[in-house]
Structure formats: structure tokens, C-alpha cells
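Schema walk-through. Below, the input block comes first and the output block second. Nothing else is stored per chain. Lengths vary across the set, and this one has 224 residues.
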Amino acid sequence: MEACPHCGATAGASRDAELRFRCDVCGGPRVPLDTKKMRRSGKEVTALKRAELARKGRAKNRAAAAFTGVALAGTIGILAIYGLLGVIGVVNPGLGFLLASLFTAGPLAALIAWFLARSRAQAKEIEPALDEAWLSVAADVAAQIKGPVTARALVEALPIEEPQAEEMLALLEAHEIIRNDGSLTRMRIGASPDKPDLAAVEEAEAEAEAEAEARAPGVRREKV
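--- output ---
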């Protein structure tokens, strides 16, 4: 087993419909690799961190939207009850109360829409980040394969099926990592331990957070 780049736990990874593979401890996205045969450079960590930040950000914004929705429903419910009581003459809520309630409901509805828009934007960042991470590990694998890089060789090193391996080969060729005959265009793998270096992981996390903040809608960065 390898150490998770998110929580640092030495644990397995299970298949996931969205993340492909997730850590059995923290649930963060992982790219499993047969470390008995292959080494990884660790260059995929930044992309995995970006995918994890997007996943967590989406969850937080969905929760915020749900909480705000409860507040909005409560406001509408109060308005409906007081309106009904006012119609039958039980109470006289007054114009000030009605205006205050309406002005509260409007911003709450806008806030819900904003939270949902952010969650959708963050959801769209997950798959491209995962593609980048898997391509990085596939490039590491390709650099260590003796002879031409084939789909079968990728299947033996990565937990993917033959059709996925064929797609990965096409991506490796498109990114000029291998040629159409399966030979390498450049060496990429570096001497890295099986467990990720903590300093490198922290640096990757900081880089991923900065990139996520830069992509977030409505964020304004001031010049120093």
C-alpha cells in the first residue's frame, strides 16, 4: 500500500463512480499504482490536490445552499401563516413586517443561487484534474516500460481495462510523451520514494489551493 497524498495514511484505495479511486481513510482521489514494479514521480499530487479541493468546496457550497434553503423556507412559511391569519382577521402583521420578510427572502434566494453556481463550477473542475493526475502517472509508467509502450503494459501497471488503456495511449501520444510506435519521446520519471515527501505534498497543496482560489468566481485578488 502507498501513503495517501491527502491524509498521509498508508491505506488502500477503492473504486469510486466519480473519483475513479478514493482513499479508504479520507475519501480523497487516488491513482493506485503497482509499486512493486513501478515508481511514481509525484507530479500527479498537485492535480489530485486540486480535485480534492474542488470536491470539498462543492460539498461545502451544497451544504450552505441547503442551510440557506431551510432559512428561506422558514421565512416563506412565516409569511404564509401571517398572511393567512391576516386574511381571516386574527392578526394584523403590519406593512413593516411584510416588507422586512420580503427583503429577507430575496437575498436568501440570491444566496442559494450563488452557492449552487459555485458548487457546479467546482464540480466541473474535478474531472479535468483527475485526467491530469492519471496522465501524469501513466507518463511515469511509460518511462519505465522496457520496449514499446502498449495498452497491455499499462493494464499491468494501472488498475484500468484495455479500452481505457487504449485511450491513455492516445493521450500519451497527443501530449508527445510517446510516439505512435510506442517509443518514448523523453524520459520523465525521477528518483522518488514510494511514500510522498511531506514538503513536496505541502507545496503541492499550497499550489492547488492558490489555483483553486484564482479560479473561484467572484474572487478578487489585490495587487501587492
